């Protein structure tokens, strides 16, 4: 009886449709970004730190190009360093594909000076719905910097 049950389960598994997913080879990405002066939406202090949130608009050029909105939260420590994180919404083009990308980043640096962050693509829409990737951005001073990383498209 036990062999019959196992054989039935194995036979059933072979009749189920199998979804095959594959991804494009990794593609190197690089370019520049710039942002307008931010609008501060929250400003407070706690434990000697200044905490602020802001929203700003900007643009990307290079492998990923388009316009963006950046919602950031920054903690400026009394040492002059800062930690920051944010969400970017980008109406972007990557190669011949376009859509909206949603990115998350977090980093640290010198307040209003050189900083670096890690960034990851959370999701996308349109032609960018199956785009996945991660990288870094360097911000030598507020308002402009460079990005680099790798991405790929999943294909079903």
Radius of gyration: 22 Å
The percentage helix is under 10%
Q: Globular, elongated, flat, extended or rod-shaped: what is the shape?
A: elongated
| N to C succession of SSEs | HEEEEEEEEEE
Q: How does the helix and strand content classify structurally?
A: mainly beta
Estimate the mean pLDDT confidence: 87
How would you describe this protein?
- The protein has one helix at 2-15; strands at 22-23, 27-35, 39-46, 49-62, 64-76, 81-94, 97-110, 115-124, 131-141, 144-155.
- It has one domain (21-155): Beta Barrel (AOC barrel-like), CATH 2.40.350.10.
- The protein has an eight-stranded antiparallel barrel.
- β5 (64-76) and β6 form a beta hairpin.
- By secondary structure, the protein is mainly β.
Features:
single chain; 156 residues; mainly beta; AOC barrel-like; eight-stranded antiparallel β-barrel; elongated
Secondary structure layout plus pairing:
Elements: H1 2-15, E1 22-23, E2 27-35, E3 39-46, E4 49-62, E5 64-76, E6 81-94, E7 97-110, E8 115-124, E9 131-141, E10 144-155
Antiparallel strand pairs: 1-10, 2-4, 2-10, 3-4, 4-5, 5-6, 6-7, 7-8, 8-9, 9-10
How would you summarize what this structure contains?
This protein has one helix and ten strands; from the N terminus they run H-E-E-E-E-E-E-E-E-E-E. It is mainly β. It has one domain (21-155): Beta Barrel (AOC barrel-like), CATH 2.40.350.10.
């Amino acid at each position: 009886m036990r062999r019959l049950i196992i054989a039935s389960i194995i036979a059933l598994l072979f009749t189920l449709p199998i979804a095959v997913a594959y991804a494009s080879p990794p593609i190197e990405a690089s370019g520049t970004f710039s942002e307008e002066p931010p609008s501060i939406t929250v400003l407070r202090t706690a434990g000697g730190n200044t905490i602020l949130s802001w929203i700003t608009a900007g643009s990307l050029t290079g492998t990923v190009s388009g316009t963006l909105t950046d919602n950031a939260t920054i903690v400026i420590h009394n040492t002059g360093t800062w930690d920051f994180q944010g969400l970017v919404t980008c109406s972007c083009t990557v190669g011949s594909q376009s859509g909206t990308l949603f990115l998350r980043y977090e980093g640290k640096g010198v307040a209003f000076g050189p900083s670096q962050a890690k960034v990851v693509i959370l999701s996308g829409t349109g032609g960018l719905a199956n785009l996945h990737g991660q990288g870094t951005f360097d911000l030598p001073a507020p308002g402009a910097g460079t990005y680099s990383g790798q991405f790929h498209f999943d294909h079903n």
